[in-house]
Amino acid sequence: MKKRILMAAIMALALAPAIYTLRAEANENGKKHEWKGKLGLTEDQVKKMDELKASQKAEMKPLREKADALIEKLKDQIKNKASDADIKGTLDEVTANHDAMKQIENKYEQSRSSILTPMQQAKMVVRRMKQHNKMEKKEKKEKADNEK
Fold first, then answer.
1. What is the pLDDT of residues 45-54, one digit of tens each?
2. Domain map of the chain by residue range?
């Protein structure tokens, strides 16, 4: 049970800041510029948002790769029953990597906000909250299904 809780916490820490980036990548696969219509973006705004997305993706790539490697390291530590000190050291690395990802996300969020009008920003916030709530419900359902 402790292993499951630890793994869930690690995954949440490691993956939370990448959610936007993953959604952006999914958006590129068939739903490119979906936001254009939903937010009423101009062609100039679309171009600027695309440039930001590409820059953010490039900047986040090494951190996502590091997060993946750290998760694998933790899995090995759990499997091999590593010492608490070793696990804590890896968890500290996960936290530091997560913090770096959040800083990058915040930087790009500010840049995105400077491109959008207040109305477009409000629409984006509402849409993201809907997506977040939808994802939360899905996770709760999966958790309930797994506990059966």
1. 999 999 999 9
2. 1-18+40-116, 117-148
